[in-house]
Amino acid sequence: MYVTHTIRSSWLILLGLLFACNTTPAPVTVVATLVPTTQPTITPTKPPPSAVPATATPLLQITLITPPPPPPPPPTTAPFPTGVISTTNAPGANTGPTSVPRPSELGNSAGDGALIAVLRRCWNVSDTRQLNGNNPAHRDAFDCARQALLDIVRNYPGYALVHRVLAWGYFYKDNDPAKAINEYRAAANIYKAQGNAAGESEARMRLALLLVSNNLAQGCAELAAAANLDPTNDRALDYYSAFNCKNAGQASTGGASAPPPALPQVDLATIKGKIAFKSNREGFPAYYVMDPDGKNVKRIAATTYDAVKQWESWSPDRTQAATVRNAGFTRKFGYDNDIWITDPQGSGRPLTNPANDYDPAWSPRPLFDGRTWIVFVSNRGDLEHPENFGEDLWVMHDDGTSPFRITCYAPFFTKHPSWSPDANQLIFSSSQQGNHGQIFVIDMGAFGTLQDNCQLGANPVNLSQNEFEETEPVWIK
Fold it and tell me: Would residue 99 be called left, alpha or beta, if left means φ above 0 and alpha means ψ between -120 and 50 degrees?
């Protein structure tokens, strides 16, 4: 092992210097500490696998110091009292998480901030979506992180979030579902003891998704418990319906087994003028509303989101709808969706062709020329330039004439446009400021006076301003 060789070499060099100087060596201790990702100090004797980035940092730094007084032993029988990981005894204390992340801090589809912090030590990765458990090079990172997480759980058994992380993906779920089930149950019990109904609900819902494949009744019971614990956990109710739990019968698993309550109905008039959107800001996909300036974010049920989205593509008088029809995959255009105008009787006519056109939204009122316009997503500007592959926002008259490109963000993707109630602004989601979706707004007041494409979208305002994945905005009218 190259670490052992380095230690032996360091000792030989040190002893040689001491002998040459005819001095007596002071007591020393060899300490292995985790190296921050910005200061690698050891180079392995053989290169890492080719699939691992060249920037992967070594895990250990060898330092010779005089022995300090022994630190107090870590707690072994009770949860860490303050919810904070000890900076003296925790594994990887100099680079690891310093507190238990709150649910609002869980912003990654892979799970949570604790996992990301561990992976930064084990491998230079900030987004676990880059990892694949089927890749041998990635398994080393998983194995390293698994051991670090087990150390944290052993020292601080009340750290419920790490139990959830261990249950995730390639750690346990993909390889040993029984262990994943145990970890989710441990997390649920810890949350229950802490009086954290939302945390227990989330853990039980994830537990249920592992149980339903082998024991539908137990899985349904956990989904019922999850929905009853947290009425805002609409995903638990969605899964309860998807698995037809009402007719499946339920076995007691220690949680409530009554059918989950119906989600509260939201009066759409109370959220008119707000923006509904989808986000993973709590560690899982959910729907929210916010003010037009991005403030006062509140969670809503999926049914509420569906209710406000259903009229986006309809004409203002709701006699026609702009719909999308899939023409299949073509060698020149890739996926070829077309926008059609359809009436309630089902007859229709195409507005766009060729290119991939979708996500239509009809302006809620006539614009500068007295006509209504449809905004949509298209890659038509790049059909002859595949190196600029991407999709932007376009507008056209409601009969398909006068198409006009309003954003030029390719190769980044731009989707889900929605008009403001007065049609003076547009919101949409785009990856233009990073590798994740954010919600932007542009001013449409100058539309009709501009001659050049892309000027309307030249100065978008980011309403999200965070590291989460936020998409599918709808301006509630």
Answer: beta
How far apart, in whole angstroms, are the C-alpha atoms of residue 359 and residue 371?
20
Q: What is the DSSP letter of 258?
A: S
- Separation between Cα atoms, residue 110 and residue 119, nearest integer Å: 12
E strand or H helix that includes residue 418:
strand 414-419
Phi, psi of 241 (to 5 degrees): -75, -40
Instruction: Provide the token pair at 410.
Output: 């390719």
What is the share, in percent, of the chain residues with pLDDT greater than 70? 61
The confidence score (pLDDT) of residue 123 equals 62
Query: Rounded to an integer, what distance in angstroms lies between the CA atom of residue 96 and that of residue 144?
Result: 13
Encode 387-399: b = buried (16+ Cβ within 10 Å), e = exposed.
eeebbbbbbbbbe
Helices (H), strands (E): how many in the chain? 9, 17
CA atoms within 13 Å, Cβ hemisphere of 436: 18
Tokens read off for 269? 């008039």
What's the pLDDT at 414?
A: 92
SS3 at position 39: coil
Cα separation, 235 vs 286, in Å, equals 8
End-to-end CA distance of the chain: 65
Other Cβ atoms closer than 10 A to 284 = 16
Per-residue CA distances from 373 to 221, 342, 347, 432, 453 (Å): 49, 16, 21, 25, 16
Beta-carbon contacts of residue 142 (< 8 Å; ≥ 6 apart)? 131, 133, 170, 171
384: number of Cβ within 10 Å: 8
Nearest to 119 by CA among 59, 208, 66: 59
- 95: region left, alpha or beta (phi > 0 left; psi from -120 to 50 alpha): alpha
Tokens of 336: 């070829």
State pLDDT tens for residues 194-214: 888 888 999 999 898 888 878
pLDDT greater than 50 at residue 420: yes
My answer on whether omega of the bond before 354 falls inside 30° of 0, hence cis, is yes
E-assigned strand segments in 159-285? 275-279
Using the CB atoms, write b or e for 126-159: b if 16+ within 10 Å: eebeebeeeeebbebbbebbbebbebbbebbbbb
pLDDT digits (tens, 9 = 90+) for 44-69: 333 333 333 333 333 223 232 333 44
Residue 145 to residues 103, 234, 397, 428, 456, Cα–Cα distance (Å):
21, 32, 55, 37, 46
> Which pLDDT band, with edges at 50, 70 and 90, does 347 fall under?
confident
Q: Which amino acid is at 77?
A: T
Mean pLDDT of the 137-151 span: 74
Look over the chain and give the mean of its residue pLDDT values, rounded to a whole number. 70
Q: With residue 474 as reference, give the H or E element that holds it.
A: strand 470-475
Asked if residues 186 and 203 have their Cβ atoms less than 8 Å apart, the reply is no
